[in-house]
Hints:
Order of helices and strands: EHEEEHHHHEHHEHHEHHE
Number of strands: 8
Mean pLDDT: 92
Strand content: 15-25%
Low-confidence stretches: none
Radius of gyration: 21 Å
Oligomer: single chain
Distance between the termini: 35 Å
Helix content: 40-55%
Strand order of the largest sheet: 1-5-2-3-4
Structural class: alpha+beta
Amino acid sequence: MKSEGRLDEQDVPDLVQELSRQRFTGALRLESEGERLGITIDAGRLVFAASSNPDYRLGPRLLRRGVITLRQMEDAGRAMSPGKRFGTILVDLGFLDPKELVRGVVDQTRDIILLAFHWTSGEYRLVEGPAQGEAITLDMSTPQLILDGISQIEAWSRVERGSGGLEARYAPVAGSEGLFRQLTLDVDQAALLRSVKGTRDVESLLAESMLNHFEACRALWAFRVIGLIRRVEAATPLDDDGLEFVIPEEGT
Length: 252
């Protein structure tokens, strides 16, 4: 993978999946129209994120949730000093319970990561090296973050490109059950995944799915990026024509 590039040439979901596959450790830095976003990655897992967008800072997020008051947010801001985190100051001042701080930071990290999936222009840069130590980190699988990120994308042009259109054909990926265990799918998403037996085109999959066609195409895109299914070219002979994705039973 290139250490830097443009987001209109390298889609964020594919970029994140490749970093996960390579078990990359370091930072993914994105920049677009003056806005900057950084994601800390540890052995392929996305564990922390920060944004230059003031609306994604911890204070406004806690304020939106009603966890702190505007006065408390402003008082904590005035008490800021070098090397002191905003959340720590809230706890020190008695404005915030430590458990609420953990929840706030985790939710903030997830929201910033999901924000990155909406970016379609700008530049990315990879900085390899030891992951920056953070006291509070996100504990969520990369496949689940990819599914959640793609599930928020509303642009049909991206969904169509990602899923391939009606004539695109998909087959299950052998040995991908471990990836499936890292996901939480709803009943209809699981049924769509289960229906990919042998090699099937998108149109036939849509005809069977209880999801509307937009949601089904978006789910197929996510399944492909995660590595549960693979795109099959029409002229490519298959050696797995009878392969079926078997969703593991709970506890197995």
